[in-house]
Each structure stands twice: as C-alpha cells, then as structure tokens.
Amino acid sequence: xxxxxxxxxxxxxDSFLKWCGAVVLGSEAKMYILEKQVLVNNEICIQRGKKLRxxxxxxxxxxxxxxxx
Length: 69
Fold this sequence. Notes:
By secondary structure, this protein is an alpha+beta fold. The protein has helices at residues 13-19, 26-34, and strands spanning 2-5, 11-12, 38-40, 43-44, 51-52, 57-60, 63-68. Strand 3 and strand 4 (43-44) form a beta hairpin.
C-alpha cells in the first residue's frame, strides 16, 4: 500500500491520480475514471470531482493508495 500525504482538507479524484503519479495528464485521469477503472473505498467511482479525504483508499491498476496527513 502506498501512503500519499495531502496537505489540504480534501483533493479531487482526478487531481489525486496526478498527485500520486498514477497518471501524467488530467485527461488520462478522466478517461480511466469514466471507464470505471478506479475504485474509491472498494467501490467503482465515476466522479472526477469526488472529494477524497484522509483515510480514503484509492485502487488503480493494481496499486493501492491511502491518503494520509
């Protein structure tokens, strides 16, 4: 599990995928999210703007990311 530190109250899902290095471009993040390839807390998420907070877990391409502060 990769622990990813955030310094804000929340971060949007598409921005998080860029922040943690899972994707390079926001357009990539959008595509993967809309193709139902991203899980947030064990549920498929198709909301690019989904607000992630400390403790949330994101799964993408076999990697697991946990938000920490």
